[in-house]
């Protein structure tokens, strides 16, 4: 096996031949280097995209801190080498190594992949291979590290079941410790790899695919996914933390320019809005908030320890943070006079959002971004992001009036029940917004319309719907390009339909897609989210060789009683609730913010004990009363789901 010294020596020879050698050397300020020989368990945390993107990933940062806080363990990092570096690594037989100590990944005890989205699947397989490991779980033995993965894509882990030994479903802050301890116990007891897998399967929130077997109906849909051992629960429910742990403050300072050179502080987790297309909003419930003081202190500490000049206050819906006004005031006071750009993403379309941004005037950057997601009131009812056209126009006019010259509006095409009129309305609405801008500030007014394509995701109310075909997407995009042709001050951007198809079949795929993923990788596909990497022909060939029909996964409306490949994985929200919400969307009915009216989505009964022991304002679900003869609020809610 390559030693760290040999890896360093090889790097000395090859790094000057690659773009951005700084991606591959580590040694960043605030990185943690612990004594390899002094700890019992070594964890490699891998973000399977290039360093420039992965280094600022907050999930990775949280786990890096969690593991490195343990005296008996260390965490180091690895990222996907870009094409030039991979070619040199393969030519020199140089295995994938960690940035901190330059140990080969194969010498770690645990390799943990972060899988926030599906276009990282081929990279994950590629990195296992680059690490010199068998890519398939069944080919690995006691000599090999345990391969785990987590992230939003783990809410349907089935397409990756063949490559990953165990998935973490939900939040990783506590589970990572349970996994390390299970590994240590198994090692101490001289247990086998199978015994370790059985121990992992018994940990709440951990899914070990080898202990489950799917069966299929004649039409190719899943009939059932059955556990094969008693340790494997029929349904693996996500793990959550009752309270968000203190945010990381010692951010790594990259030695090269990366996508986000900034401090990110998560102000809250979860979302109560219930947008029907949004997987993150459904799977990260319940909402748990940090206090203003905790956020501001963490931001200050992180800025001081990094020297970064940008602060991002992260959440799925910043305007919904309970004390957002106080937070913005506190941040603006604390950093008064400092050269710092502060971003507050995902603001709601209302004048109060402009007030918030105005408070940050001294620290604001560039344009103002809003996401109506659809351009007609009918569509916005269907997707449950209702706001009137007048409110959009009033808000955007006010934004221009208060000094912003560019507004970025995000839309999606391909929503269920969308017509070409709904697509054309995107152009009409943008033109009306720009006209309002011209009235306010004249010809300086600019607009950027970002139009992506909707992909139905598992664990959402739209998990039953068909995705638009490639031709239909192209037709809609052509319509928009024509409609914007003469508008010099409107910039239009869109997503490649090939990328949409890939994301669509992987996100609702079953176990049979593992073969397709491996073949696509063997045919050269990797970096699927990148123009330089994604090879549609490799995927087409892979589907052909396996005899699977890609449209089965993308363009098929699911039966209402269909068993989904991911039904044995639960994000805490009941399938019945999602279905009821889907039916409401067909009737154009909306649900209000569930902070105002709990709809009994399933979260409270699932985490009743946790809520009971953490009463009060941190969670945005209703309190759960103590048991003792009285009907608890949880069970009452569970019995009486309410719509609007
Ligand atoms: S339990 Fe009620 S308040 Fe909590 S997330 Fe679900 S619907 Fe919203």
Summarize the model shown.
By secondary structure, the chain is an alpha/beta fold.
Description:
The strands form 6 sheets. A 6-stranded mixed beta sheet has the order 2-1-3-4-5-6, with helices on one face. A 4-stranded parallel beta sheet has the order 15-16-17-18, covered by helices on one side. The protein has a 3-stranded parallel beta sheet with strand order 10-13-14, with helices on one face. Strand 17, helix 15 (470-484) and strand 18 form a beta-alpha-beta unit. The chain is built from 23 helices and 19 strands. With 644 residues, it is α/β, with parallel strands linked by helices. The longest helix has 22 residues, at 420-441. Iron/sulfur cluster (SF4) binds next to helix 21.
Describe the secondary structure blueprint for this structure.
Blueprint (H helix, E strand, L loop, with lengths): L3 H11 L26 E7 L3 H4 L3 H11 L4 E7 L3 H9 L18 E5 L6 H10 L15 E5 L15 E3 L3 H17 L4 H9 L4 E2 L4 E5 L5 E6 L8 E2 L25 E4 L1 E2 L9 H5 L4 E2 L2 H15 L3 E5 L9 H11 L6 E3 L7 H9 L8 E6 L3 H6 L6 H13 L4 E8 L6 H22 L4 E8 L16 H15 L5 E5 L2 H11 L5 H10 L13 H11 L3 H5 L14 E2 L4 H12 L16 H4 L1 H6 L19 H7 L5
Parallel strand pairs: 1-2, 1-3, 3-4, 4-5, 9-19, 10-13, 13-14, 15-16, 16-17, 17-18
Antiparallel strand pairs: 5-6, 7-8, 11-12
Helix pairs in contact: 3-6, 5-17, 6-7, 9-10, 13-14, 14-15, 17-18
The structure holds iron/sulfur cluster.
Iron/sulfur cluster (SF4) binds next to α21.
């Amino acid at each position: 096996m390559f030693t760290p010294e040999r890896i360093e020596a090889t790097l000395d020879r090859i790094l000057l031949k690659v773009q951005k050698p700084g991606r591959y050397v580590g040694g960043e300020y605030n990185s943690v280097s612990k004594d390899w020989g002094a700890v019992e368990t070594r964890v490699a945390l891998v973000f399977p995209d290039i360093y420039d993107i992965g280094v600022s990933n907050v999930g990775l940062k949280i786990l890096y801190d969690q593991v490195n806080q343990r005296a008996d363990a260390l965490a180091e990092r690895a990222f996907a080498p870009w094409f030039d570096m991979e070619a040199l690594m393969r030519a020199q037989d140089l295995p994938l190594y960690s940035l901190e100590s330059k140990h080969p990944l194969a010498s770690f005890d645990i390799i943990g992949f972060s899988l926030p989205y599906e276009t990282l699947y081929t990279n994950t397989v590629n990195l296992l291979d680059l690490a010199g490991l068998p890519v398939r779980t069944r080919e690995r033995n006691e000599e090999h590290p345990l391969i785990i993965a987590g992230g939003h894509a783990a809410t349907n882990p089935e397409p990756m079941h063949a490559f990953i030994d165990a998935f973490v479903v939900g939040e990783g802050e506590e589970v990572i410790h349970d996994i390390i301890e299970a590994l240590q116990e198994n090692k101490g007891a001289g247990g086998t790899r199978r015994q370790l897998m059985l121990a992992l399967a018994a940990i709440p929130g951990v899914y070990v695919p080898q202990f489950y077997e799917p069966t299929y109906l004649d039409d190719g849909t899943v009939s059932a996914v059955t556990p094969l051992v008693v340790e494997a629960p029929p349904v693996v429910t996500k793990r959550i933390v009752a309270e968000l742990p203190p945010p990381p403050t010692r951010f790594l300072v990259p030695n090269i320019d990366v996508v986000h050179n900034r401090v990110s502080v998560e102000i809250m987790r979860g979302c109560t809005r219930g947008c029907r297309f949004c997987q993150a909003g459904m799977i990260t419930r319940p909402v748990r908030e940090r206090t203003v003081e905790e956020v501001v202190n963490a931001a200050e500490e992180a800025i001081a320890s990094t020297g970064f000049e940008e602060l991002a206050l992260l959440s799925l819906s910043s305007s919904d943070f309970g004390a957002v006004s106080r937070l913005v005031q506190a941040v603006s006071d604390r950093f008064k006079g400092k050269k710092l750009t502060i971003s507050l993403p995902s603001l709601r379309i209302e004048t109060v959002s402009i007030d918030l941004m105005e408070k940050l005037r001294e620290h604001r950057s560039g344009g103002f971004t809003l996401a109506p997601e659809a351009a007609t009131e009918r569509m916005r009812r269907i997707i449950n992001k209702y706001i009137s056209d007048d409110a959009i126009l009033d808000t955007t006019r006010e934004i221009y009036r208060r000094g912003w010259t560019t507004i970025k509006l995000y839309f999606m095409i391909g929503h269920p029940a969308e017509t070409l009129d709904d697509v054309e309305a995107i152009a009409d609405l943008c033109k009306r917004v720009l006209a309002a801008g011209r009235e306010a500030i004249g010809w300086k007014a600019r607009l950027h319309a970002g139009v992506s394509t909707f992909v139905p995701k598992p664990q959402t109310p739209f998990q039953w719907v068909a995705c638009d075909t490639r031709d239909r997407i192209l037709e809609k995009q052509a319509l928009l390009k024509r409609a914007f042709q003469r508008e010099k001050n409107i910039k239009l951007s869109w997503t490649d339909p090939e990328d949409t198809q890939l994301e669509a079949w992987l996100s609702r795929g079953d176990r049979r897609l593992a073969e397709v993923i491996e073949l696509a990788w063997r045919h050269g596909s990797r970096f699927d989210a990148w123009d330089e990497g994604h090879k549609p022909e490799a995927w087409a060939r892979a589907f052909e060789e396996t005899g699977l029909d890609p449209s089965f996964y993308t363009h098929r409306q699911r039966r209402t009683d269909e068993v989904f490949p991911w039904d044995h994985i639960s994000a805490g929200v009941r399938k019945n609730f999602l279905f009821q919400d889907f039916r409401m969307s067909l009737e154009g009915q909306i649900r209000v913010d569930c902070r105002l009216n709990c709809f009994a989505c399933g979260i409270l009964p699932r985490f009743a004990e946790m809520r009971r022991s953490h009463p009060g304002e941190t969670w945005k679900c209703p309190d759960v009363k103590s048991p003792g003869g009285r009907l608890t609020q949880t069970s009452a809610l569970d019995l009486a789901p309410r719509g609007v």
